[in-house]
Amino acid sequence: MAAHLSSGRVNLTALREAGRRELREFLDKCAGSKAIVWDEYLTGPFGLIAQYSLLKEHEVEKMFTLKPGRLPQADVRNIIFFVRPRLELMDIITDNVRREDRGRSPQRDFHILFVPRRSLLCEQWLKEQGVLGSFIHREQYSLDLIPFDGDLLSMESESAFKECYLESDQTSLYHAAKGLMTLQALYGTIPQIFGKGECARHVANMMIRMKREFPGSQNSIFPVFDTLLLLDRNVDLLTPLATQLTYEGLIDEIYGIQNTYVKLPPEKFAPKKQGEGGKDLPTEPKKLQLNSAEELYAEIRDKNFNAVGSVLSKKAKIISAAFEERHHAKTVGEIKQFVSQLPHMQAARSSLANHTSIAELIKDITIAIGFYSFPTASEDFFDNLTVEQEFMSGIDTDKVNNYIEDCIAQKHSLIKILRLVCLQSVCNNGLKQKVLDHYKREILQTYGYEHILTLNNLEKAGLLKLQTGGRNNYPTIRKTLRLWMDDVNEQNPNDISYVYSGYAPLSVRLAQLLARPGWRSIEEVLKMLPGPHFEERQQLPTGLQKKRQHGENRVTLVFFLGGVTYAEIAALRFLSQMEDGGTEYVIATTKLINGTTWIKSLMEKLEPAPF
Amino acid sequence: MSRARADEEEYWHSSKFRAFTFDDEDDELSQLKESKRAVNSLRDIVDDDDDDLEKVSWSGEPVGSISWSIKETASSSSSSSLEGRDTSLQKGSSSYAALPKQVSSYSLSNLFKGRNRLPSLPSLSDAFSDTGAKNYAPELRRPKAEYKDYSNDWSPRDTVRRMQRGKVCSLERFRSLQDKLVLLDEAVAGHDGNVITAVLIFLKRTLRREVLFRELEVRQVALCHLIHFLKETGEQKLLLDLLRFLDRTEEVALSQYREHLNIQDVEKKREFLKGCIGLPFSAEDISHIQDHYTLLERQIIIEANDRHLEMAGQSEIFRKYPRKASILNMPLVTTLFYSCFYHYTEAEGTFSSPTNLKKTFKIPDKQYVLTALAARAKLRAWEDVDALLTTKNWLGYTKKKAPIGFHRVVEILQRNNAPVQVLQEYVRLVDDVETRLNLATKYKCHDVVIDTYRDLKDRIQLMAYKCKVERGSAEEEKINSLLSNMQIRWKN
Description:
Organism (chain A): Pavo cristatus (Indian peafowl)
Oligomer: heterodimer
GO biological process, one term (chain B): vacuolar transport
Number of helices of chain A: 22
Subcellular location (chain A): Cytoplasmic vesicle, Autophagosome; Cytoplasmic vesicle, Clathrin-coated vesicle; Early endosome; Late endosome membrane
InterPro entries (chain B): Spe-39
Helix content of chain B: 55-70%
Radius of gyration of chain B: 36 Å
Radius of gyration of chain A: 26 Å
Protein name (chain A): Vacuolar protein sorting-associated protein 33A
């Protein structure tokens, strides 16, 4: 089930195991049979920690989705609510509890498990409603960092960026620090901490404080990580706005990956058996899990999409040849040999079939066929990409862009417009008053004046701003950090810029330069980026200090505060695999994001409450 | 397996590639009876071992995963509300957003004050108000381990630390302002928003407003948390007081303006927006707020009028094209489209006329032409389209002009199934030759294609085009006569 977690340099199964242990302990506190009522948002992340079988072993007999009304009948002793600490969810719980039939016997006991933290605010609220006393156990389950893959951890806190940069609420940073403490308890103290940005500074401070306050936490585990790099998302606002061009990144951009799962249109996944096909094509979306447990996916996910096709067709040849082998199998021994490989081959075949279908779906959307014809999905994708690339390479960032205007006129999705306008703003270190006003007016007139609230949020977050001082320092940053590479090689990349077909993600460039030659070489540029940069050392007891074997790679944990994209992850994996790289990366984040989900999290909720 | 042998390049660059399918290998394997038996037995072994090999249902949910199991265990229970849940599950996690909506129909501040508000559940509060009161004995059933947390002499620092660990602490004994502020500073230093908010709730309850505001002004982090908290719980009045105290006038304005989203009644909303105009918005924003108010005011007038017209059944346009939705609360451009659709010919003096909207809201030419064109093309009013794109210069000569470019005009007309005669008039006006040829070919505007090749003196292309027109048609004749015209100096 979780083999993919131990495939990397750091065995993350231990973290998952710790999570499972905590869950078991809680379940056992509520003696007897139980039903779990789920905050639906949590089922995804929990699914990465435990399966139903684990819950069942601990007498969980029924599971329901949290919603208002009377709780379903279930002959169990305990009802446990698994929820995020949110007021609107407390309200649903209150409704559930109030509707519970008091006369029933035996009575059912209520419990709440807050994920990831107990909230005094929520409890206060339940108290005001007079239902707090109905709960016997009120506990927290600190699902801070969830292992997504052998080298990837996420807190899946969707509002982290908004809270940190818009509301100055540092709670998610506190959780990040807590998660890092857990990580250190399992994998040893991380001797070196580097950071860039206000939030990074806060997290480092909290870690140091927590360590001081709990001297018992000094552990005797040999450190697995050499370095921790904390990066604020607002140090690099540019990268998530651009369209990711890796295979995994594109799947996320187009279909959205949630907790390693993706839902795809079913047409291309028709049943392969003859006779079955054609009759009843499935209408439900096809759901697939995407992680490194799947060999083929691990190989292609971080490639530029333009390099995926050739890998797939090579694989097809190999698998076909392997199936052909059966004709040459003559002796019982040979047949046995062939048969023993069959399950693997069949898995490889279905994996190949799936990814060929996905690649086709993406190709239909992304690759423009022919010269100017009429706006098709691919046509528009291509135009959009062209404009993005112009901005990132510094072309015409200081005037109103025709394509953006056209898109507004045709009422393309507002998020798409906002992504482009913000990208232009970031690449120009703010827009000129005239340009900013123009975009604002067009947006408000076309999409509604109430969006002034969203525009305001974007301005507060620094994504959209007025150029002040009349100086654009983006070109300096771009040149010093070599963010734009003209000679990008998508097939056999030699630089991280392949993940955006030319643009090298700023965040990852910072990580790369930190490893070699060190940040001292880019002091000037670091000063142009927001927030302080710093270095801290955590003392290790003698005996735990690492004596590195010759040629052994260092392990760096890069923590993105405010979210990270799949393309950035791909770029870091690329650096890990460089032969003379010398550093392997493990990635942690508050949330896996793309430009769309990110902008969405900053938009004002506009739907009025329905009556 | 021919597909597998296909050339790599061809595979990737061909645009008509079918889904990747292997031949059904089971039949081919039938000769190898022995191995087939082995495969089958192997399959059994593999399938039993489901610890490593996940079973996946069609929808891709691994069998035994949590979200799968919710469906499974729920469907076995006989709940009357099952149907609702099933639909919500099918939509997957995206349906989640719909969940809280049902309950956000009241302000959270009401809840905090303990008032009951669910109009749909009136009987509940009555039925359970007693029980609720009795239940309010929160600490009685707490596990033993937490009893010992009730101590009266924790220092502020210890109190904060205990709260960080999720333990319940009484804050009541922090009586002096000094103590309370030390407590707050400790909470802030711990960065745990949960604890900071808890302390703030305590301070908010026990401190005078002016004192609270004054002390928070020098404690930015705590201040942000309080603002966030007040927003979340909907304590609008206190929030505005606080922002005013801090002189954050623009925020006051925006925050107040945000309230309009919660007003359903359009008349009330209009009144509210009118009140917003005087708020201290930034210079750039104020005109937008003003426009928002003016637009809604217009929409209310137009809506009342048009509803009346539609009901009376006298107006042809409304009979022929019944309105799909009300125009209230729609964006400006949508409103302009509506007015170009239903009120195109009205004089500038009426509120619903397009020209009036254009003038009032200073809609740019480009935007106006685009919207009007889309509306008139939808009605297939080709003469209006013609008039819209025709300008007269001071000598009285007319000329076609399109601020959006004629290729866009063609696009819009084509989308509305304009006849070739109409289409070709505008295709002809597309500036870029290559684009013009492309459009003309695609939409079979033969005349334009022929004339363009003639102008390019491209004999070969013209000859090639002959096979695309109908035999014996006027177009063919035209091509023939051009090709035999000795006066043209062909370039090829």
